[in-house]
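Hi,

I'm pasting everything inline rather than attaching a file, because the server keeps stripping attachments. The sequence lines come first, and each chain or strand is labelled.
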Amino acid sequence: MSLPASPFAYVPGSSPLHRLSALPKLVWLAAGLVFCLVALHPLPLLVVLGAAWGLAAWAGVGGPLWRALRVLGPLAASIVVLQVASPSACAGGCVPLASIGPVPITAEALGRGAAFTLRLLAMASLALVMLVTTRPSDLFGALRALHVPYQVALVLATTMDLVPLLQRELGLVLDAQRARGLRATGLGAVVPAAVPVFVAAFERVGRLAISMEARGYGSGIPRTSYRTAAVGGRDRALTVLGAAAGAVGTVAGATMWGTGSVPPLAVPGWAAVAIVVGAAGAFCAVMAVGLTAVARA
Amino acid sequence: MTLPGDVVIELEAVGFRHVAADRPALDRVSISIRAGEYVGLLGATGAGVSTLLLSLDGVVPQLVRGEASGAVSVLGRDPRVVPVPAWAGDIGLVLDDPSVASTQATVADEVAFGLENLGAPTATMGLRIATALESVGLAGFEERSPATLSGGELQRLAIACALVTGPRILVLDEPTANLDPTGRRAVYRVLRRLNRAQGVTVLVSDQDAESIASDATRVVALGAGRVVADGPPASVLGDPTALARHGIRPTGAASVAAAVGVGTPVPVTVEAAARVLARRSPAHRPPVDGVAGAAERLAELASASALPAEAAADGGPALVLVRDVAFRYPGATGQAVAGVTLSVMAGEVVGVAGANGSGKTTLGRLVNGLLRPSSGRISVDGMDTASHPVRMLAAHVGSVFQEPAHQLLATTVAEELALGPRALGVSEARIGERVRALAEALELDDVLGRHPLRLGRAERKLVALGAVLAMAPRVLVLDEPTTGADVRLAGIVEAQVLAAAARGCAVLVPSHDMAFLGRVATRIVVMGGGRVVADAPTRAVFADARLLAVAGLEPPAAARVALAVAPSGPSPWPPVSLEEAARVLRRAGPDDGPGGPPGSAAAESAW
Ligand SMILES: Nc1ncnc2c1ncn2[C@@H]1O[C@H](COP(=O)(O)OP(=O)(O)OP(=O)(O)O)[C@@H](O)[C@H]1O
Ligand SMILES: [Mg+2]
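And the predicted assembly:
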């Protein structure tokens, strides 16, 4: 309706990545996420980020991925600020680049900030590529195949199903508010709208659950998939390969970059100040908008 | 394996009370249904029909909670114990809210969903999905997102979802409330074929009993949670007075026949009524061979254009002016409306009719400003919708959406009614007055404290209407205001629409309910493929068979009965409401005796 499509929702498509069954995708995603967690170094993280974007472009979901990451931008900025402001950030010898008032900006803090930011972006990109190319109901089957407990799988898959529904619900409520003479532009409207949205969504989810269960959702019968061929030899091979890659990557990542020795980021003093001030500014702007919205509600 | 004639559904003294409800929805209901039966269920809003239908695959009481008593057995199993998803292979369920058929990203995936859950082989799915979509007229919609379908298209999708798995029992709760007359016939044709050719047991409820009258093998009527009638359609529907006692709308044909004074059991289908009435009036004895014959005569009538055009509205100012407007939804391939020009004067009620997806709702949303025309201009109460925010237009144009669940924002009905006037800055004292007056006029007193979304579909719609009327706008856009409404609710809506027009409002009513349009609309704008194909007085539209056929419409039963009895009659012709039909047919019948109107409740409350 009046809102863009949800950034986290499935984007229909027919790319090989869309057609790949959810099980190998899930395993490769897990491998990638674990790797990002053990290898805290800009180099491998940049490689993962590049790979995620390459996959997104290949599957034709670059646009949705970009929109989703913009939401995460301010969060990434806050990481830089927190790293710089963190008092324990400088245990060994640090290279001060500049200072803002009493707070020194060191090359080490900047380096760590950059690495954490990259990690966040790499992990988010990987997960998003997987989410927007996998139908939530296929995800359910894959989670079950991985022996995730039935209830957990159902909740996870249903949650993914619900994200776009909630998004749409919000659009409809905003339309309804405007049609009734209520404010409905900007965050100031979205936040108060959230209350009826969630009450209404709660009611509607109940109805949706009825409709889905009456159509056999969660019948316990092994699910087949209309879009994705049944898990075949190729999928099984890819799944095993993904698990292996995850294991190898974890060990390699841990030995090569797992020491926590993040390279310092030595930039000229003015650039360091600019980075930190810019990040803080972005962070504050977002917080301010959010808080005014809450206050107005 | 069940054989034809085996009992498949057995209810024994079934009772159910919803959580927090003060009276039971079902009260000692005992019915047994055999394989291959086709059962039509009738009941006023709140009579318990939905609760009964939902009890068959365990939705009640497993997902809709409450206090259950008695015993239910379906295919030898207990739906209170066997989990809901385990019924999906045997029972296809269509809920009364079609918007729940949009859980997946595309139409094809939505239909596939049920097959996937039952583990159907992937290779067979394509054909099964195509067949199901074809049977509801949605071929070609496969890759659309359900979220972008029109109300009727969505309802067709919900039906396809229930058909695709090939269930032994089909349970459908008001499945055609949003469908155009052609679509409605098509759906009933499918049900009939499944029932007659494949022995599928069918249970279907509908506020419009016309199709049930001709197709069902049995009709069960509920009143306040109890079975009040159970038998062949001709006998149950043939007693409109008894039905009216329980707020159940008889078929249009039965109402006309009863009003003319035909004794009980009255004929219940248009064909039967026309046959009986033609016999009573020897002056006109055209060969009566059903609607097809009537259609031909309508065509002759239309080509002869012997219709006196009714005077246009009494020259009030045009409150709605739509000039050469086109609109395309973002991402859509074609235009949803194109080249639309129309006006609505103060005091005028203009119906908008047309097939599903013809652009009625889109037109309504353009008029209330929620959509901005891609080209052309719209002015409402003197304001250009393109240059005023919707929020400001809201004081001038009030809209009831096709899907009422989408516009209710408050947690109680009372708050819902107060929301709009508060946004306009009306004083709290005045708001209180308005809410009280509206609650009384709309008979919402009893539900003021309830959550609007927990009300039945038609009642939700009434609350939405109240919320809009509370803002006292000069222009009303009421999208399908009578879907799923029983006699009482439809009567309330009618009274409000006529009262608004009498106050000088301009009212635009996109609707499939021809009987309703016949009663309230001075003029009908017929849409087809996003364009206005006709804009004429209601009577002229109902008489134009060719136009109606092209647009996928048909006149209300009252007009069809009259036209089937005689191709032409005393002016005004054809009758557009039950009362008019009764009057002219009574006049036409010389052997009618002195018998004035039977004055039965049926005749008064019938449509
Ligand atoms: N959000 C949307 N995006 C794309 N197409 C849409 C959207 N909403 C409606 N349409 C399409 O526009 C056309 C007109 O839709 P509209 O809802 O106006 O029809 P309608 O006449 O009200 O139908 P119904 O009788 O089923 O309510 C249909 O073909 C529909 O599929
Ligand atoms: Mg519509």
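Confidence is low (pLDDT under 50) at residues 1-5 of chain A.

If the labels don't parse on your end, tell me and I'll reformat.
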